[in-house]
Amino acid sequence: xxxxxxxxxxxxxxxxxxxxxxxxxxxxxxxxxxxxxxxxxxxxxxxxxxxxxxxxxxxxxxxxxxxxxxxxxxxxxxxxxxxxxxxxxxxxxxxxxxxxxxxxxxxxxxxxxxxxxxxxxxxxxxxxxxxxxxxxxxxxxxxxxxxxxxxxxxxxxxxxxxxxxxxxxxxxxxxxxxxxxxxxxxxxxxxxxxxxxxxxx
Length: 201
Hints:
alpha+beta, 9-stranded mixed beta sheet, 31% helix
């Protein structure tokens, strides 16, 4: 499996990180990425399964070519401004798009932290893809992006997401009441955090 950076980071190119079954690389051009996703990932043809698995609904045109281009332009702006860093999770053996990871709400200065969000398509859930993806990505977030702390949140009943975070070393730090509006309902979320020193042991 490989993780692809969706858009190119301004300035020096990011290095490529590798482990036995995974690698980190820059994504192809927007048109290539769009065609690859539409052709090789059944869930992108409707978007419904991906969106619902993430607890949200995407705009009706989000998976059209123009919608995809708008998304990539927004991602490029976020990266250039050091606000957020979105990634695609690609299965290496057939090039299928199985999910995505975003480091958002990047704060610098005395904080040096960001918020991690992720989604996985329903046909690919429970197969270890997201756990493997985060394990490859975390060294880059702490190293290349020089973060001190990474935060994440998930609904208390989402045991799959909780297992992913805990397998990757995140510690539960509390409960935020009515934290996010999911499918029109304000829901409590478990709060998790991972520190650079904890990750590096």
